[in-house]
Design goal:
The chain is of the alpha/beta class. It contains eight helices and six strands, in the order E-H-H-E-H-E-H-E-H-H-E-E-H-H. The chain binds 3-methylbut-3-enyl trihydrogen diphosphate (IPE) (2 copies) and magnesium ion.
Length: 245
Amino acid sequence: MIDIKNKRIPQHVAIIMDGNGRWAESRGKTRVAGHKAGVESVRAVVTTARKSGVKALTLFAFSSENWKRPEQEVSVLMDLFMFVLKHEVKRLHKNGIRLTVIGDVSRFSAKLQRKIIEAQELTQNNEGMILSIAANYGGRWDITQAAKKMALAVKEGHLAVEDITESTLNSFTSLAEAPELDLLIRTGGDCRISNFLLWQAAYTEFHFTEVLWPDFKEDEFSKALDIFDQRERRFGRTGAQVTKK
Ligand code: IPE
Ligand code: IPE
Ligand code: MG
């Protein structure tokens, strides 16, 4: 059970959903079985985040580096993405969740791109929570594409170089509409960011857990929220300045 009373809830949570392959291999199954099992955790976390009052949830589903995996695994991941879009979007819509896909989707099949557009359009006016799926996403790609768009705005005379601030650059990034990233979770035991939300993670709290993604369900998510609640966020100030009353 989630107890959200008196808890400081992060407005924006991101998750590097790692460990599907190891979860499957340790059970004598194929890596693909691990990815399939991981879909259940996605459902659990989306539901729990929504219930807890999280405003934005960003999930790393496929990195710009994951194309380097065996062709067959990449192809199953694409099929799974398509399957989830086909079967889950209605439920998301019913629960007031807005779905966006962030990343360079131009490399996906035309069919998958169409499905992504459809899902985004169906849910675009929902205000309960923004669920962003990072697919063919890389943090450096995001900053680069933002810089390119900003340069174009300058070239076309819509923006003066002197007026560029951090918030201007932010407005061109993929998560411009989401609140500040408060909490970044990585399952699977590795303590690295793997080119995920580089710009957005400037003052984010990190939670690394050994739990493998298919085992990360409501209880583990609640635990992460508890840990977040215990953190003292100082943003450059001293502990005394920020001590809770
Ligand atoms: C994360 O699990 C899912 C994706 C990267 C798509 P992995 O497939 O990386 O699982 P491990 O890290 O090999 O266990
Ligand atoms: C990061 O996991 C990407 C996703 C979870 C989608 P990886 O398993 O690909 O990360 P590295 O390469 O081991 O750092
Ligand atoms: Mg991995």
